[in-house]
Amino acid sequence: MHTTLHNVTTFFQSAGFKKYAKRFGIFVIALVGILLLACGGLALYFNQNKSEIIAKINTKINENINGKFHIGDFQYKFLTGLPNFTLALKDVELKDNKWDTHHHTLLKAQEIEARLNVWNLLRKEINIHKILINDADIYIYKTKDGYTNSDIFKPKKKKSPKNKSKPETTIDEIDLNDVHIIIDNQLGNKLFDFGVHNLNSKVEYNGDDWNTDLFLDTQINSLAFNTVHGSFAKQKELKGTLAVSYQADKQKIDVSTKNLKIGSDSFDIAAYFNVGKTNSLFGININTRILWSNASHLLSGNISSKLNRFDLKKPINVNCDLKGDLNVHDDPKIVVQAVAKNNELTIPDGRIDKCNFRGIFTNNFKPKNGFNDPNSAVILTQFSGEYQNIPLSIPQVVISNLEKPIATGIVSSDFDIERLNEVSNEKWIHFSEGHAKANLKFQFDIVDLYIKKPKFIGNVDVDNASFHYIPKNVHAVKTNIHLDFTEKALLIKQIAYKHKKNTIFIEGKIDNFLNLYYDAPESYGCELEHLLSQYRS
């Protein structure tokens, strides 16, 4: 170790090392000197040609807008953005020709940096390498008659054969920092509002087409596809990289991203937006695995207010598909699909354990009736679970008209009857053995998300049940019950049970059974008590 250290010290003190170190130092000093001279030369060039450069920038901008462009001040930024020439524009405003009517300024920025290609600049040409917009407000406004202040940008002129070889001015990179962007579409009743912390985009061009990987870190203040119903993902942070491309011949923007963060959850998204004057159709498809409560908080108020009354303990797989027209006043078409496996579902009436289902939400249940709450539905298939320890199986249930919800479906159950002992805290009956099966078509209203007066058609069978009816101290064994529920009556096909040494058989019919049960429960209770007392020894 001592020998190695001595050799290193000897090398640094050698004449050869000192010679090369001196040359390297001179090289570095020369390089810095050249760099300073270049920057000084650029600064001198800017000061001598300041008015001409600003005139050329104004000319470039005014060639492409129908409006007013104002710069409060400008300066050259020394040593910034090398090897490009960086020009900082201060207090920039951009207004369309109808600003006096609507008073929405398209762009108001504290500072915009334009980094220009040095070699083109020396040839008296303006080629913008990069634009940085800091501390700005962007307000894109569309009136109810279809006019938009973004029409400030003139359409591109078709090149003549003589000018086809002349390159157009392009912007290769865009950076936004602390920029507030609002897209206010009065025609389509839509409002998009973003507080952009940072946006970075390097653009690659292929003729009139382009593509970019766009990094975005923003807060969603409003993502309202219908301002009447409120915003999606309100006050959520959005962060990730999006692959964005534009096809000029189709006037269409495509967007795709993986693991985009919205709040604390990750999303895979594929979307398209038609931006032609006669075509404003869009589509957004979202895939994620998310907690029910988190998903509900990402939806608009008219949907989340209903979903918040439910919950699932474990995350579920969700796909959401939105399709609509940015210039149409109505909601977009929304289809949400979800899959739950071995989950715990909380509902206003209780809890369902070991819950499995495939669910679909649509706001276009009947295709000709529009996209709205009365035409919205929730469809559950392959539903299974345990409600108060009773197993349930529902092949399909449809909850339609979410303005005045009605649920219809078929429910079946097959279980040992002792499980009923855990259903009620009031110990009025105790089962010791037996088996029950039920297969019922049902329909019920949902009032404030609670089941209201369910109606049943189908049968309930109980075999070999033994129980103790505690209020009257009735002990029964080997009881068989076969009931048929029809639209008009309850048919008692058989009630047979043994009490002490007697075997009792009951058959009969109760008209308007469900009406009696719901509308006059005290009368129903008296009838049941009377029926049982007749067979007590």
Model description:
The chain crosses the membrane at residues 24-46. This is AsmA family protein. Keywords: Membrane, Transmembrane, Transmembrane helix. It comes from Flavobacterium soyae. Residues 24-192 form the AsmA domain. With 537 residues, the protein is an alpha+beta fold. It contains 8 helices and 23 strands. It has a 23-stranded mixed sheet that branches. β8 and β9 (252-262) form a beta hairpin. α7 (513-519) packs across α8 (521-534). The chain starts with a helix and ends with a helix.
Condensed summary:
This protein is α+β, with helices and mostly antiparallel strands and 537 residues long. The chain is built from eight helices and 23 strands.
Largest sheet: 23 strands, mixed
pLDDT average, as an integer? 80
Based on CA atoms alone, the radius of gyration comes out at: 37 Å
Strand count: 23
Percentage beta strand: over 45%
Content-based structural category:
alpha+beta
- Distance N to C terminus: 107 Å
Q: What secondary-structure arrangement, pairings included, does this model have?
A:
Elements: H1 2-12, H2 15-63, E1 67-76, E2 85-96, H3 99-102, E3 107-116, H4 118-122, E4 128-142, E5 173-185, E6 190-206, E7 209-224, E8 236-247, E9 252-262, E10 265-274, E11 281-290, H5 292-297, H6 301-307, E12 311-312, E13 316-325, E14 333-347, E15 350-362, E16 377-387, E17 390-400, E18 406-416, E19 429-447, E20 450-469, E21 474-485, E22 489-499, E23 502-511, H7 513-519, H8 521-534
Parallel strand pairs: 4-5
Antiparallel strand pairs: 1-2, 2-3, 3-4, 5-6, 6-7, 7-8, 8-9, 9-10, 10-11, 11-13, 12-14, 13-14, 14-15, 15-16, 16-17, 17-18, 18-19, 19-20, 20-21, 21-22, 22-23
Helix pairs in contact: 7-8
